[in-house]
Amino acid sequence: MAEKRKTLKGFSAVFCDAGFFIALYSKKDSKHRRALELFKEIKAHKIVIHTSWFVISEAMTILLYQYGYSEARTFNQTIDLYKIHHSANSQCHQAIEIFSTLSKDRKISFVDALSKVIITEDLKNIPEMSFDDDFRARGLTTISEPGQIPFL
Fold first, then answer.
1. Which of 19, 24, 108, 146 is most open to solvent, judged by the fewest CB atoms within 10 Å of its CB?
2. Residue 104, in any domain of the structure
3. How far is 92 from 65, CA to CA, in rounded Å?
């Protein structure tokens, strides 16, 4: 099983999922404070943030629908800070296979399945910035809540 960490020490790049962006850009989100802590660490260590257009779309939509225009627009204005990955057709088909296989037993979004493909194929398994335990369950290293495990 992949590891769950609470620090970014030693990493030069991370992949951020929609949940991280939503928590970062909405003060009303229960994970907002932790997302801010992690983002400060990213800035301090000059860590490159990777994501995908699918993640951007999911985060922007949820921010708008659940938190409001201001939060969605603020996020929208920052997307040039991130290295955004385009998905090849073959990666989308792999994600469909992952989605079809894993969604039988648990809820998994197509975007999460595609993120797994991008992280494992294009990004050599860099850690995932996520508050979603599904990423760790799928074999990816996640950076999330403090206090859940000792620093590694």
1. 146
2. no
3. 26
